[in-house]
C-alpha cells in the first residue's frame, strides 16, 4: 500500500500581506514617522499661535480670561497709537543692532583663532561656551553690579581714564549699551563654535591653493573663509535677529522693572508685552503685541533671505 505524497505549498504563495497592502504600508510609512513631530507641533505650536490671533481680536482681562468681548482690530489700532509701543520697538531695534553686530563680528574672529593650532585648544573651545551655559538671571545680576553707578567696576575703570561716572541704568544710550553687553557676553562663544564648525568643513585644498598663489593670511580669510562660511553667517544672523526681537530676560533683570527704566529707555517689545498682559492685565492687547512681534520676525527674516538671494544671483552673473 503506497502512502500519499506530502502536500507542498503552491509555488508563488506566501504568508505575508498581499502586494497591494505592502504598497499602501510602504507609502504610509514616511507619514507615520513624521506624525509625532507634526502632532506635537500642532498641539504646542500651531494651536497657540492661532488661538493668540483669536484672542488679539477680543477684549480679554487677566482676572476673567473666560470672558471675551469682540473688538476686531481695535487692539491693534490702540497699540499703534501708543507712544510706548513705538519706544519699545525702537529700543528693540537699537539693542538688537548693538548686540548682534559686535557679537557676530567677535564670534567670527574668535572662531578664526580657535581654528588655528593652539595649545590646550580643546580647553579654550570648551571655555568659550561657559557664558552660554550660565543662567541669564545670574549673568544679568552680575552685570548689574558691574555697571553700578557708585560702586561698579566699570565706572571705576572709567575713572582711571579720567572719565566721570556714568549712570548706566538711567541714561538711554548707556543703559542700552549695558543690556547689549550682557547679550554679547552670553552669545559670542556660542556663535563662535558654530563658526568654528563651519570653518572646519571648508576643504583644506582651498587654503593650500591660495597659499601657493601667494595669498596672505588675511586674503585667505577674506577670499576663502568668508565665502565658505556664508550659509553659516546667514544662519547665525537669522537666529540672532529672532533672539534680539524676543529679548526679555536681560532687560527685565537689569533693573528689575518691566517698564525698562524710569523713562522706558530700554524697554523691549518682550517687556512691553509682559507689562500689558501681566502688569495691566490686558491679555487681548498682549496677544496683539505677540502677533506684531511674530510678523516683525517674518519680515526681518524674509528681508535677510531676499538680500542673500540677490547677492548670490549677482555673484552667479559674474
Report on the structure:
This protein has helices spanning 19-55, 74-80, 83-114, 121-127, 130-133, 136-146, 153-160, 172-200, 204-212, 217-228, 230-245, 249-255, 269-279, 283-317, and strands at residues 58-59, 69-70. By secondary structure, it is mainly α. The chain has one domain: MetI-like fold. The chain has a two-stranded antiparallel ribbon with strand order 1-2. The radius of gyration is 28 Å and the shape is flat. The termini are far apart. Residues 7-12 have low confidence and may be disordered.
Fold blueprint:
Layout: H1 19-55, E1 58-59, E2 69-70, H2 74-80, H3 83-114, H4 121-127, H5 130-133, H6 136-146, H7 153-160, H8 172-200, H9 204-212, H10 217-228, H11 230-245, H12 249-255, H13 269-279, H14 283-317
Antiparallel strand pairs: 1-2
Strand content: under 5%
Radius of gyration computed on alpha carbons: 28 Å
Supply the CATH architecture: Orthogonal Bundle
**General shape:** flat
* First-residue to last-residue Cα separation: 93 Å
Largest sheet: 2 strands, antiparallel
Region (Disordered): 1-20
GO biological process, one term: transmembrane transport
Keywords: Cell membrane, Membrane, Transmembrane, Transmembrane helix, Transport
Organism: Streptomyces lavendulae subsp. lavendulae
Amino acid at each position: 500500500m503506497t502512502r500519499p505524497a506530502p502536500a507542498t505549498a503552491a509555488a508563488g504563495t506566501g504568508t505575508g500581506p498581499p502586494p497591494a497592502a505592502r504598497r499602501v504600508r510602504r507609502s504610509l510609512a514616511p507619514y507615520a514617522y513624521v506624525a509625532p513631530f507634526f502632532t506635537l507641533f500642532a498641539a504646542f505650536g500651531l494651536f497657540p499661535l492661532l488661538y493668540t490671533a483669536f484672542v488679539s481680536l477680543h477684549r480679554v482681562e487677566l482676572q476673567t480670561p473666560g470672558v471675551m468681548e469682540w473688538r476686531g482690530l481695535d487692539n491693534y489700532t490702540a497699540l499703534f497709537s501708543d507712544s510706548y509701543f513705538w519706544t519699545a520697538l525702537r529700543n528693540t531695534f537699537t539693542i538688537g543692532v548693538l548686540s548682534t553686530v559686535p557679537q557676530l563680528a567677535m564670534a567670527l574672529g574668535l572662531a578664526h583663532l580657535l581654528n588655528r593650532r593652539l595649545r590646550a585648544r580643546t580647553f579654550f573651545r570648551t571655555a568659550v561656551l561657559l557664558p552660554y551655559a550660565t543662567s541669564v538671571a545670574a549673568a544679568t545680576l552680575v552685570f548689574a553690579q558691574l555697571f553700578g553707578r557708585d560702586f561698579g567696576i566699570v565706572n571705576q575703570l572709567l575713572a582711571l581714564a579720567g572719565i566721570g561716572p556714568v549712570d548706566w541704568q538711567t541714561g538711554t544710550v548707556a543703559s542700552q549699551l549695558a543690556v547689549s553687553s550682557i547679550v554679547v557676553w552670553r552669545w559670542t562663544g556660542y556663535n563662535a563654535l558654530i563658526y568654528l564648525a563651519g570653518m572646519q568643513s571648508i576643504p583644506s585644498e582651498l587654503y593650500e591653493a591660495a597659499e601657493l598663489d601667494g595669498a596672505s593670511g588675511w586674503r585667505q580669510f577674506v577670499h576663502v573663509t568668508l565665502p565658505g562660511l556664508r550659509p553659516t553667517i546667514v544662519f547665525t544672523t537669522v537666529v540672532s535677529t529672532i533672539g534680539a526681537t524676543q529679548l526679555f530676560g536681560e532687560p527685565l533683570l537689569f533693573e528689575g522693572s518691566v517698564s525698562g527704566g524710569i523713562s522706558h529707555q530700554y524697554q523691549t517689545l518682550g517687556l512691553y508685552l509682559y507689562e500689558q498682559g501681566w502688569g495691566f492685565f490686558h491679555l487681548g492687547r498682549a496677544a496683539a503685541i505677540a502677533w506684531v512681534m511674530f510678523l516683525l520676525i517674518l519680515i526681518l527674516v524674509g528681508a535677510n533671505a531676499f538680500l542673500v538671494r540677490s547677492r548670490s544671483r549677482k555673484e552667479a552673473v559674474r
